[in-house]
Every structure is written in C-alpha cells, then in structure tokens.
Write a structure and sequence with these properties.
With about 350 residues, this protein is an alpha/beta fold. Helices cover about 35% and strands about 10% of the residues. The structure holds S-adenosylmethionine (SAM) and iron/sulfur cluster (2 copies). One iron/sulfur cluster (SF4) binds near residues 65 and 69.
C-alpha cells in the first residue's frame, strides 16, 4: 500500500524532470549518463565520465544574512563577486557538451548578478537547462521580463513564513512584503505570456516558529498556481536547537543519519564558485575551505580537475567508508545530507 501511495508523486517527479531535461538530450550526454551510472556504482576513483550537472555561483554576494546559511555567517576570507559572461563561456566550452543542467547558485543571491539573463542565454545556446534559487528581493518587474525573455527553465524561491515577523526570524534583513509582492508580480508576468516556464518551486525551511503559518503558505501556493511546494529541514543542524523542527519529517531526519555510504555528487556534478574555483558539492563550497579547492575550471582543463588528486582521494574516502577527519581533502569534513557518509564509530 505504501508503495502505491508513492506512485502519483513519483510519476509527477519523472514528468517534471523529463520535461526539463528531455529537450537537452544528445547522444554524447546519454552515453555519459550511462557511464556515470556505472562508474558511480563501482565508485571508480578516476572516472572516464564527466559531470552532468554544474552548480555555478552566479553571485556569491547576498543582501540577507539568513540564520542557517553559510552566506549569513560573515566569513570574510572569500571576497563576494559575480560570475562574468566571459568566464562562463570558458566553462561552457570545457563542460557544456556533457551538461544537462546548470544550477546558478551555491551560496549567495543569483539575482545580484545583473548579467544573469545573459548567462542563461549562453547556457541555452549550448542546449542546457537553467535553474536558479532566489530570495526574491531583486526580482523586479524588469528583471522578471528579462528572465522570461531568456526562457529560464526553473525558479526555486524561498519564503519560509507568511508574515514579516516570522519570516525575518530566519531571513535576517529580509522584507517579506517585497519578496511576496515580487513573486506575485512575476507569476502575473508569466501568465500574461501564456507560458508555464519557468517552473516554480516554493521552498520553506520548517522551523518551530514558522510552522503555524505553513498551511497558509501551502494555500497561497495552490491559489497562485505554483507548481511545487517543498518543506525542507534544516541541514546540518545549523539553526539553533530550539528552532529546528523535524516532526513529520522524521524519515528525512533518519535518512540524514543513516549509515549508508554513498555520494552521487562526486561522480555526477560539480560545484563552481563565481571565480572558477571548483569544489565537489555546494555543502563544502565555502570560505573556510578555500585553501582546499579542487582546481579552477577557468584556468585548468576539466579532466585535470575531475581526475586530480583531491577528487580521486575524495572518491576513495567514500568507497572505503572511512572518513578521515584529519584529511586535507574537503570531503573528509562531510556532514552533508542528503549524502550519507559512514563515519567510523568512536
Ligand atoms: C544558500 S541559498 C542560495 C540561493 C538564494 N540566495 C536563496 O536563498 O534561495 C539556497 C537554498 O539554501 C537554503 N538554505 C539555507 N540555509 C539552510 C539550512 N540551514 N537548511 C536548509 N536549507 C537552507 C535556502 O533556503 C535556499 O533554498
Ligand atoms: S538569501 Fe540565500 S544565500 Fe542569502 S543568506 Fe539567505 S539562504 Fe543564504
Ligand atoms: S562533501 Fe560529502 S556530499 Fe559533498 S561531495 Fe564530498 S562526500 Fe559528497
């Protein structure tokens, strides 16, 4: 019975992904996808396949200081900046033929990069889907029109509260009314063009404080015709203990700590900061680790990075199931759901 209940959701997810990715299929990408699957299964440390998804920081700057987000913690080692079109073109030349999808955020607010629509168009010239995640504060009418012109594929937006009072408890410096009115106007703009693109996903990080407003958020999402509403849990226990909320999301919580030994990102995707510095995933792509970058995609070639010492060592760590806390490879500090690394029992 449990399995049957999951079927409509699974069909919906497959349909959504198919819609987003099917037009991007090429023979080369398909072959690469198959090889990624096999090499991931055998956890090869020097794969012949290449990443299928690139998470690229359109901007590492942010106007907010959300609790629970690394961008909100002022670690000044890494200067904020924006991805240039020139560097992005170099990245596309090196990786574009393998990529199904570019995800234009890691830490930071992508709409702070005013060239974002040009970056989206550049990705589309290589037949790659584009996703952004935004706090909505800079989704002006003009930017909305430019994003629609550029045929952005998907927008994830984060509104975790349905009043200023609740919203700003997590989104420090956030303006609820501005964020809400910006997304409402964008939906109208999309409607006027008679398109369902970009696909809209509302994410809500559930906390003890915003939980009472969750139903109002879900109702608003339905009324506004937003395609998907996602409840998230706090990753990595970054929020204060009394604010975290996991009840009803227990499975996610259990999964976070299950002692399986997997990481698909080390074989399937790559995280790149605005200046080209490469990290294996968004969870470790941050400032304290800047001395441990895996390479620079603007300066180095993809194969050198992808099969470089850091990547090989990281894959070996995952394969062995032993995470060396002292290792100089950043994956050694992995505490990141939804990837589960078996840690040695103390
Ligand atoms: C780091 S932000 C970057 C993109 C953009 N600035 C935004 O807020 O959407 C990407 C996502 O991380 C989520 N996030 C940040 N801190 C989190 C935490 N502690 N737990 C779960 N999600 C978190 C945000 O809600 C957002 O959906
Ligand atoms: S808006 Fe996004 S990047 Fe900025 S602090 Fe909040 S979650 Fe982090
Ligand atoms: S830090 Fe963890 S989740 Fe990220 S790539 Fe490394 S092993 Fe995978």
């Amino acid at each position: 019975m449990k399995v049957l209940k999951k079927i409509p959701g699974a069909i919906g997810a497959i349909q959504r992904h198919t819609k987003l990715l099917l037009p991007r299929v090429t023979i080369r990408r398909l072959v690469n996808l198959a090889v990624v699957g096999v090499e991931m299964l055998f956890r090869r440390s020097r794969p012949t396949s290449r990443p299928m998804v690139a998470k690229i920081e359109a901007s590492s700057a942010c106007n907010l200081m959300c609790r629970g987000c690394r961008t909100g913690i002022p670690l000044v080692e890494y200067q904020p900046g924006n991805l240039s079109l020139e560097d992005f073109e170099v990245m596309l030349d090196k990786m574009g033929r393998y990529l199904f999808e570019v995800v234009f955020y890691i830490w930071g607010e992508p709409l702070l990069n005013k060239n974002l629509p040009d970056l989206i168009e550049a990705a589309h010239r290589h037949n790659i889907s584009v996703i952004i995640s935004t706090n909505l504060h800079f989704l002006t009418e003009e930017m909305g029109e430019r994003l629609l012109d550029a045929e952005l594929d998907k927008v994830i937006f984060c509104l975790d509260g349905w009043s200023q009072e609740t919203y700003e408890q997590v989104r420090i410096k956030g303006d609820f009314e501005l964020a809400r009115s910006n997304i409402m106007r964008f939906i109208e703009q999309r409607q006027r063009r008679g398109t369902k693109k970009p696909y809209l996903e509302w994410q809500w990080v559930v906390t003890q404080n915003n939980r009472p407003e969750l139903d109002r958020g879900k109702t608003a999402a339905r009324e506004l015709g937003i395609e998907k509403f996602v409840e998230l849990v706090d990753w990595g226990n970054r929020l204060p203990e009394d604010e975290r909320f996991f009840e009803g999301l227990k499975k996610v919580r259990q999964k976070q700590f299950s002692r399986t030994n997997r990481c698909f990102w080390l074989w399937s995707s790559i995280a790149i900061q605005y200046d080209g510095n490469v990290f294996p995933c968004c969870h470790v792509a941050n400032k304290p680790y800047s001395e441990r970058i895996y390479g620079n995609i603007v300066k180095d070639d993809l194969a050198t990075i992808w099969n470089g010492r850091q990547y090989q060592r990281a894959r070996q760590l995952v394969r062995s199931g032993w995470v060396d806390e002292e290792t100089d490879v950043v994956c050694g500090q992995c505490y990141s759901p939804p990837i589960f690394i078996e840690r040695p029992r103390s």
